[in-house]
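Convert to structure. Protein one:
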Amino acid sequence: MEKYIIMVFKPRNTDCKDFDTEGGLLIKKQLFKLSIFCLIVFVQSLWSPAVFAEQKTFIIAGESALPPFSFENEAGELTGINIDLMEEIAKYNGVDFKYIPMRMEEAEKALSNGTIDAIVGSTYNTEKDNQFDFTQSYFTMSQSIIIPSKRKQDIHTLTDLRDSHVVLDHNTPVISTFLNMRNTNLTTVSNQYSGILTLLNNRADVFIGNKWTADFYLKKFRQEKNYIILDEVIEPADYTIAVKKGNQSLLLMMDHALTELKANRNINEIIDKWVMPQSNQKIARLEQFIFWLIIILTAVALILLIIYIWNQKLKKSVHNQTLKLHLLNKDLEKQRQNIVNAEAFKDQILNNINNGIITFDLDFMITSCNAKASDILNISKEMILNLMNHSQLMKNFEDLHQERNGNDRTGSFRILVLNEENEQKVISYSMHRMFNSEDIQTGYLLSMSDETEKKTLEKKLITQEKLHALGQLVAGVAHEIRNPLTSIKTFIDLLPSKYDNPQFRQVLMEHLPTEINRLNGIVTDLIEYARPRPPNITNCHAHELISLLAFHKVTMEKNHINFEQTIEDDLIFYIDLQQIQQVLLNFVLNSIDAVEETKEKTIKVTIDKENEKTGRITISDTGKGMKQEELNHIFEPFFTKKEKGVGLGLTLSYRLIKENNGDIHVKSYPNSGTKFTILLPLYIE
C-alpha cells in the first residue's frame, strides 16, 4: 500500500508578506488548495503505476528569460529551478523530458495545438483553467516594485505609482490591477527581460515584476546599486506545470512526483540552490527573529487558549452532543455516497470488459450478470437473472453445478443458442469461488468469452497451411523427379540413332543407372518422410550417439578439418538410438560441406545437460553460415542450397527429433558459422 504525505508547501524564500496580507482570504485559498491536493492524492492512489511503463520523451516548454526559474545558459540550453524540478520528476517516473525555450503566449498556443506536452513555470488563473489543467503549486510568489534608487523617498506602495510610467510583463497577473488604476501610464512587454531593459534605458519610471528575475538582471548589468526592489506584496501567484486539458495521465504523473518531492523536501533544496543569496549572518539573524517570534506567538496562543477554554466551559456539554450528531450524520452520508460510488464503479467495470461475468450464491442461484454475458449467451439480462426457469442454459452448466464444492474449474464447451439463425457458438469458460473479507465462501463467479470467431479463423488458417505445405511438397517432388526423367528421356530419344556407337553405349551405361538410383532415392526419402517407423525408445549412453561419426574422421583429416568433441560423463538419454544417430550424421555431413571453402575449418560436438530432465547436443562449425531468409526455410521439404542435394535431410531430421520428444534451435550468420542445438529427454530413474 502506498503512503502519501500531505503538505501545504511554501518556499523558504517566499516573502512573509505574501501570507500576511488579507489573511482571511489567503487562509481560504490555502484550504481550497489543500482540498484539491487531497483529491489529487486520492485519484493517484487509484491510478495504475503501469501507465508509464512504456518509455516516452515528453516535450516541455519553458520561459527563456525568467531567471532563476528558467533561462538559456551560454550553451543555449534551458536551465534554472523549473528545469531542475522537471529533471527530478523525470527521474522519479523513469521518463525523458526535452526542453524547448518559448515565450509564454507561444507555449500556450503550442500546448493547445498538442505540439508540446506541458509548460513549466506557468502561473495559474481562472481564465487559463478553462484551457489547461494545472498541477499543484510548487512555488508561490508575489510581484515586486523595482524603482531607481533616487525615487526611494517618493514611492512606497502601489498608490504612489499614479502619474508614473509603469512597465510590466503582459502575462503577469497584476496587469488587471493597473488597468483599473487612474492616471497611470502603462506599457506592457513580452517578458521580464524586456521590462528590465526598458527601465534601465530610462523609458519607464517603474518596473513591476519578479524580484528574483529583476535581481538577476540588475546584477548582470551591474545596476544593483542604482535600483532598489520594494517588498510590496502584489498579487501572489502560484507557479505550476500546465498540461493540455484532459491529459489526466501526465497530470497525475507530475502531481504524484511533486507530492513525493515535497514530502522529501527536495523542492526546498532545488529552490535554495538558486535563490539563497543571503549570507550566513543574515540567516542567523532570521533564525533568531523566528525563534523569538515563535516564543511570543506561543505565549499569545496559550493566553488565547485559556480564555477560549474558560469561555467555552459552560457550552461544552451542548456543543459536544451537537458535534457528535453532526459527525454521525456526516459519516452516514459519506458511507451512503461511498456505497453508491462503489456500485457505479463496479457496474462500469463489469459492463465494459470483454468477458461475460455471471455470479452465483452458494445455492447456485444467479445474483448478477453483465451486458457481455447477455450478448454471448444471446439471452436478455432479465431472463438470465431468472435462470432457474431456463433449463437449456442450466443444462450446459450442470457439470459445474454438481462440483460447486470442489476446486475452481476451467474448460470449453459448445452451446446451441436458440435464435432465428440457430447459431452455434464456442464459449470458453472458467468457474471460480468467491470469498468475503473474512475468507468465507459466499458464492461462485463464472467468466466466459466467445471463441467462435477465433476457432473459425484457426480452422481456416490450418486449411491454408495444409494447402501451402501440399503445394510446396508437390512442387519439390516435380522439380526433383523432372531432372533425372529429362536425362533418361534424352538417352531413350537418342537410342535408335546411336545404339551402334560404342561411346554412346558407354555413356548410357554410366549415367542411366545413376539417374534411376537418384529417382529411387527420392521416392525412398518421400516414403520415409510420409510414413516413418515409430521410434524404439530405450536408454542409451551419450558416447553411443557419436560412435558412427568415427567413419568420417578420415574425411575430416583429409580435408584438414579440426574435429572437437566434449561429452559429459554418465549422461543417459531416453531416445531411439538409431534415429538420433541418423540425425547427428546428417548435421555433421552438413558441417563438413559448410567448412569446405573456409580458411578456419573447425567442427565441435558437445553433449551435456540442459537441466534435470533434458540433455543438450550442440553441433557447431566455422563454415559459411546462412542468411535469415535461408534459416526460415531449412526444415521445409526440398529446400537445399547444394547442387546434388534433394532437400529432405533436415526435414527428416526435424521430424525424428520431434518424434523423440525433443526440440531443435538453430543460430547462423553469414561467414560466421552455424550452431545446431538439439534438446532430448534424459532417462530418469
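Protein two, convert as well:
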Amino acid sequence: MPSGPDTTDATTSGPPAREDRTGASAAADTAPGPGEEPAADDPAPTGPTGPGADSARPPHAGRLTALVRREWRRTALAALAGIALGLAFPPYGVWPLSPAAVAALSLLTRGRTARQGAWTGFAFGLPFFFVLLKWLHVIGWDVTVGLSVIQAVFLAGLGSALAVTARLPLWPLWAACLWVAEEWARDRVPFGGFPWGRLAFANADSPFTPLAALGGAPLVTFAVALAGTLVAAAALAARRLRHEPRTAAGLARAGGVPVAGSLALAAAVTVGGYAVPVHTEADDTADIAVVQGNVQQAGMDFLGRPMMILDNHVEATLQLAERVRSGETARPDLVIWPENASDLDPYRNAEARARIEEAVRAVGVPILVGALVDHPTKEGYVENQGIVWDPESGPGASYTKQHPVPFGEYVPFRDQLSRIVTRLQRVPRDFYPGDHAGVLQVGPARLGDVICFEVAYDEIVRDTVNDGARALVVQTNNATYGRTGQPEQQLVMSKLRAVEHGRAVVTAATSGISAVVAPDGTVVQETDEFTQDVLTARLPLRDGTTLADRVGAGPEWTFAVGGVLAWVAAGVLGRRARGTRGAQGREDVQAEGQQQ
C-alpha cells in the first residue's frame, strides 16, 4: 500500500516538510501529502538532451543513476545500522546497539514512500543477517548470503510499514508493534520459520530481560523496539527545536512529544524490567551430571567414524562413575547426554545398545540419551530423539524433535533441489517430526526436553512447561558450527527461556557450550568448546508458572495485530487523502474554466 510522508505535525513528533536528504531523518525534498508518492520515487531520465540523447543514455539507465545518486547515503546509513544490530548479538553482545539500531531504522524510513521504506529496510536487514548468520559459512558463504537475503525480505516489509505508519499519531507505539509483527512472520514462514535474530535474543543480559516473565520474548522485543522508537521521536523533536525560537510559542509550534518526555519514556521502558519479580525459589532439587563427550573435529564432518561420538560419551560417563565409586564425586540422580550422543540407532544396532547399557549400569542412574533412531514404520526416515535409559529397565519414554531444521535435517523438494544443489545430498535421510511435547520423567526429575534449535521457538518451550516440566533440558549438537559464535547465540536463548518460564535450563552439547542456567538467567556453570567435560550441579525444580506461561501467545498476537491494523489504517487514510486532493484539483480546474 504505497503512501507518502506526512507534511503536517501530528500529536506526536514528526519530520518537517523539508528535510536534509543525507541526514538520518531525511525526507524527500518535495514532500507530498499523506498517502501520495513523491515524483522522486520514479524520477525522470537525467543526462544529455537534444537529438540522439535517448540513444546515448536509455531512460532506464537514467532512472537508475538518479536513484543511486539520491539513495546511496541513506542506503549506506541503513547498512551501518544493520551491522550495529548484528553486533548487539553474541559473540559480541553489545545489547545497547539493539534499541539504537531500531531508532536509526525509524529515522531512515520516516518521510519515505512505501517502496523507498522497503528498500531501506532491505539495506538494513541484509548486512544485519550477514553478520548474525556468518557461522553458516561452514556450509558455504553462498548459504550465508542466501539465507540473509531471504530474512532481509522480512525487514523490507518492516521498512515499508514503518514508512507508511510514521505519519500516524503515537507512531512509536505502532512501530514497536510492527517489529513484533515482523518477527511473528519470520518465526513461521517459510518452512516453519527461522526465529534467529529476534531483538529479545540480543537482550538476555539487559534491563529488558525480566519482562520475559510477563509476556515472553515478544514483550522483550516490543520493549526494546519501543525504547528505540522513542529515542527516534526525541531526535526528531530536538531537530525541530533547533529551528524554533526558545519561547513558549516556539516550543508549542515544535509540537509532538518533547525531547525530555520521549527520552524519559524510553528510559522508563528500559529500566521497567527491574520492577518485574523473577521467581527462583526451588520446590525441590535434583543432582545432575551433564556429559560433554566431544567430537573428532569441527565442521560438516564432525561425526568422524561410526561409534566415535558414542564412545566419547560412554568413556566420560565411565570416568564419572569411577569418581563416584572413589567418593570424589557424589552420585547424581540422573545424567544428561546431548543431542546425537549416539549416531547409531541403539534399538537396531547391538553394539551401540551395549555401550549405552554399559555406561548406565556403571553410573547406576538413568541417562537421558540423545540418539538418531530409524523411524519404525516409514522407511528412509530418521527421528532425532531424547531417550530415558534406566539402569534396570533399559530404554523407556522418549521425545522426538518436533521441528527439524529445513535443509539441515530434511530437504524440502528433495528430488528437484538435490539435482541443482549437490550439497543437499549430504543430508541422506529426512528427519521425521515428533507430535508431542518432551516432558520426561528422568529419575526423580520431571524434565522438559527441547532439542537444539527448538529453543528458539516460543510455543515449543512454552508447551513443555505447561505440560508439567519442572526444569528444561536443551540437548544440542553444535559441532558443525564450533568456534563460530553460533553456540553463544544459542546459549543466550536458554538464558532468556529460564527467565521467561522461571525454570532452570540445562544445555547439553556434544562439543560445547554445555551449561547450567539458573531460573533467573544466571549461568552457573559452562564448559569450553571442543573439550571433554562433565558438569555436576544441584538443579532447582519448580512447579509454579509465570504470567508468560499463562498468557501464552496473547501478547505476541496483540502486538502483531496492532501493528498490522496501524499499517492498514495508514494506507486507508492515504488513499482518502489522495482522493480528497484529486477532487479538490478538479474543482479548481472547473472554477478556473468558468472564470475564463
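The two ends are 39 Å apart (CA to CA). The chain is about 45% helix and 15% strand.
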